């Protein structure tokens, strides 16, 4: 991929895109042969929050939604394929109606000259596989690779960009919050990283298979990556920030790109008697499948300090457990940053830092697969949505991305979250992200009509001018 030397412009073929995921957007959870995923039967949905059964009903608004994406001017569109639409129980019969649905979507996108970017797996493992221990069962590796093969065979003639697993790092670090079933075991930490190992093997095998079957396609992982700041200039806080970055970021990319496990994380697991089992040949598998680019989701940075000594993990509350790893790092607020209405820190400069650090470390082209602002949007009586706060958020983040490009980072595309309103992972439809408003409330489905927000017209103009309007 060539770099553009003109500082004022984004690269000529830059993929201006937008993202969704199947379980948060499609609805039609049990229609046309689809099997249930863990998300469809999730019983831990917080009170007052909708489930994932109807969501934005994209399944029944397909043509209308793709027309909106075309009007927005997208060069690419990132969506995920529901494993349970293709193989209802995860590893058995193929459901032709599921195959047909994504054929219709892909053909419509191509008709509108929109490049499809396909995520194979976005938090929605088939419930039937979960009954057999899901990702904790090594047989799920084969089930996933078979699913990937079916996707390559059916869509590989038209899909050039593939993403393996969305936010594997968030599944491991906060899976219970985003509706995943986590391993049950006396040695939870070991089981957790055993599950991570199986997912890594599935990913490497899939990347290899993609290259074997589709020599012109490109494939990459899609973790959530963000720079980690030390809370102070104390040397031990710098160590804490590095520790957190290894556990949160580099473990996943070192395995995907370099085919090795991050040494800091391995040392930490051993210290905690939680080293997972690696069978002979596993590391060869990890080395055999490599990505062509790194896709990553970015919402915010984190800040870490070294925790006080003597903290015992079992004595922490569940909230504290999410933030503190004894003798390793403690995540703290960053007083220099503002927050969204939902309490997420906002850090455009951290986006630039994340680009720089990731590119320096791996040297692969970068594709942003999520970035965006969740907010309580309001619709006026004349059906307008004045989301100037979202425009401000995007302006600053896209400028930061441009700064990184000007500093030499190779970025091939930007796919913000989300193209159209959808249901958040655990905070419902009230936490809106889209350029298009979907008229429904948490429990009142209303008419599900689509209305363009102010940010829709802003992004449309930005794409039309290839970023010059910034
Ligand atoms: C990412 C996920 O973590 O963040 C998306 O890939 C998710 O699925 C997005 O929706 C925003 O998070 P949330 O929790 O606000 O929906």
Note down, in words, how this protein is organized.
- The protein has 15 helices and 14 strands.
- The protein is of the alpha/beta class and 470 residues long.
- It has one domain (15-226, 345-464): Glycosidases (TIM Barrel), CATH 3.20.20.
- Strand 9 (324-325) and strand 10 form a beta hairpin.
- The longest helix has 26 residues, at 188-213.
- The model is unreliable at 1-6 (pLDDT under 50).
- Bound molecules: 6-O-phosphono-beta-D-glucopyranose.
- Residues 21, 24, 166-167, 170, 224, 297, 370, 374, 417, 424-427, 431 line the site of 6-O-phosphono-beta-D-glucopyranose.
Features:
single chain; 470 residues; alpha/beta; 4-stranded parallel β-sheet; disordered N terminus; binds 6-O-phosphono-beta-D-glucopyranose
Short characterization:
One of its GO terms (molecular function) is beta-glucosidase activity. By secondary structure, this protein is of the alpha/beta class. Helices cover 39% and strands 12% of the residues.
